[in-house]
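Lay summary. Proteins are chains of building blocks that fold into shapes, and those shapes determine what they do. In this project we predict the shape from the chain. Here is one chain we studied, written as its sequence of building blocks.
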Amino acid sequence: MKQYKNHTLREYLNVLAQKTPIPGGGSVVAYTAALGVALLGMVARYAEGKSSPVVDKKVRKIIADTERMHERLLILVDRDAQAYLEVTKSRKKSPQEYQRALKTAREVPLEVCRICYKAIDAAPFLVEKGSKYLISDVAVACELLLSSFNGALTLAQYN
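And here is the predicted shape, written in a compact code that computers can read:
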């Protein structure tokens, strides 16, 4: 399986639209969260070097955090697909193995939730200290992160 994180946008959308079990909702929420986090990183980069050393230190931390988060979320795009394949394979095995696979599959959307929660914490600072021209980008990032959080929470509840 080619890693979804290495697909072009068009390839990913084409694969997503197929009648196949993966990628699915878990992959989508991870990818959407990665978009939101990357957008926050972009806003932070515009704020870098524009203020006091104290503010700049916080901006650099946000940049480093968003880079780490979006890399992790891209890994989760594929990890969710792998976890779901394990769930489908384990349906024919013992109930214990099936439950173990479900538990593992739940870990992915729960991690997406944690990352979204942490990422959105940077938004107020970026609105206050970032460019006034990029406030709408912060708002879009928050909408993506909130949507991903809610979608991931739904997936975790139904797995």
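What the prediction tells us: The two ends are 23 Å apart (CA to CA).
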